[in-house]
Amino acid sequence: MHPLDGFTLRMSDFHWVGRGLSRPECIVAERDGTLWVSDNRAALTRIDPDGRQTQVGSMRGAPNGFALDADGSFLVANIEDCRLYRQHRDGRHEIALDTWEGKSLGSANFAYRDDAGRMWATISTRTVPRSTAVHQPIPDGYVLCRIDGTWRLAASGFCFTNEVRIFDGHLYVAETALGRVVRLKMDGDIPGKKTEPYGPNPLFRGAKIDGITFDSAGNLWVTEITRHALVVISPDGQAHTVFDDPEGKTLLLPTSITFAGSDLRTALVGSLKLDRLAAFTAPFPGQPLAHWRG
Predict the structure, then answer these.
(1) Is the dihedral of CA 277, 54, 79, 154 positive or negative?
(2) Burial of 31 (0-12, 13-18, 19+ CB in 10 A)
């Protein structure tokens, strides 16, 4: 039997976290219950366990995906001004990377630190405006990897690279413009060249996927923005829609899923348009991220 055992969500299964947020695209959850959320009025908003909120930073633009680094600072991809920033908890920030191979970095989308200490960053496209590359397949997206302080090209040729994850010896990549997830087998620190679709290709006709993350049962949770949907790709490669909200009454342009709470079963959903985070109880705990294990 499929591990999800028919799990689905209804509108009444969601509750809300945070208030008055602005473009809360990505969330990082710490073990002590603190949440960090992308916020384009600053850089991040910190939500304390007691619900208090504090805007942190002055980056502005469009802080998008971000990751907690080993030193406690955050690597933030700012998709609007095409840079990666290091954001400190006291509000300071500096540019971490803004060019690659002598050109502008492009639309920096996401950052992710894996259990081996490698930092990954995705560049969705170098096409201007970037929305063009969302709606038509332009294979100019790429993935960078920082190993021992040095950035290297990990993979390229993607059609609007979005979130990435390392799992089971593979690099998983969300390709927004093609509505699919692909994976590349790791060869040491860097993935090989061969890509293979993971799950349906595309997820469904017209799909635009954004966020991907694994749970402890090996299910890959996917956010899809045209139907404001949550889809799970099970380990056997089958796709299961667990929530579908075409009118956007509960979810609106969902962008990411983060597992939080002491048992990692509180799933928080990021969004481009909502001013708060949608939350639900997942059937399985999430895969703990590197900072959670540490």
Answers:
(1) negative
(2) middle
d(CA 203, CA 210): 12
pTM here? 0.97
Domains, the chain, with CATH or none: 11-293 (2.120.10.30)
List the chain pLDDT tens, one digit each, 294 residues: 457 888 999 999 999 999 999 999 999 999 999 999 999 999 999 999 999 999 999 999 999 999 999 999 999 999 999 999 999 999 999 999 999 999 999 999 999 999 999 999 999 999 999 999 999 999 999 999 999 999 999 999 999 999 999 999 999 999 999 999 999 999 999 899 999 999 999 999 999 999 999 999 999 999 999 999 999 999 999 999 999 999 999 999 999 999 999 999 999 999 999 999 999 999 999 999 999 887
What is residue 293's three-state secondary structure?
Answer: helix
Residues 6+ apart with CB under 8 A from 104: 82, 98, 126
H or E segment to which residue 157 belongs: strand 150-158
H runs (alpha helix) in the chain: 130-135, 290-293
CB-side neighbour CA atoms (13 Å) of 75 = 23
The two most distant CA atoms of the chain are separated, in Å, by 52
Residue type, 284: F
Residue 176's Cβ-side half-sphere holds a number of Cα atoms within 13 Å equal to 30
Beta strands in 71-123 (DSSP E): 74-78, 83-87, 93-97, 99-100, 103-104, 108-113, 119-123
Give the residue among 41, 46, 85, 84 at the shortest CA–CA distance from 60.
41
Closest by alpha carbon to 242, among 270, 273, 259, 220?
220
